[in-house]
Amino acid sequence: MKVQAYLSFKGNCQEALKFYSDLFDAEIINRQTYEAKKIDVPSSYRDKLQHAELKGKNVYFMAYDASPDTPLNSGNQCQMSIEASDNAEGKRLFNALSEGGQVHHNYREREWGYFGRCTDKFGIGWMVNHNQ
C-alpha cells in the first residue's frame, strides 16, 4: 500500500510543478492537459494540467488544476512535510518555499531539532524538519 499527496491548483499547476521540480531536482512526468479530454471546461483552460506527477529522489506527489467550477479553499488541514538530510538543506528549502509566501514559524532550532512552517506562493503548506 502507498499513500501519497495529490495537490490541487487554481490554474497555475504547471508553474508550481516547475518551481518544485527545480527545487527538489525532480522530474514532471505523466503530464496530461484538458486538451483532448471530454470534460466541460472553457477553451482557455484546455492547456491546464488535468494530471501530472512530480518524481525524484525521495519526492513523489501528484497534482492538477481543478476545473474552474470546482471550489478550492485555502486551508491548513493538510501540510507537505520535508525531512531534510542536514540543517543547511533544511534552511535552503525553507527559504525557497517561503519566498513570496507566508512564514508561520521561522526555521530555527527547537527541542527536537530544526523546524519551520510556511505557506508557499502557490498556497501550499510546508513543514521543514531536520532532526539532529
TrEMBL record:
Residues 2-128 form the PhnB-like domain. InterPro entries: Glyas_Bleomycin-R_OHBP_Dase, PhnB-like. CDD domains: PhnB_like. Pfam families: 3-dmu-9_3-mt (PF06983). This is PhnB protein. It comes from Winogradskyella thalassocola. The lineage of its organism: Bacteria, Pseudomonadati, Bacteroidota, Flavobacteriia, Flavobacteriales.
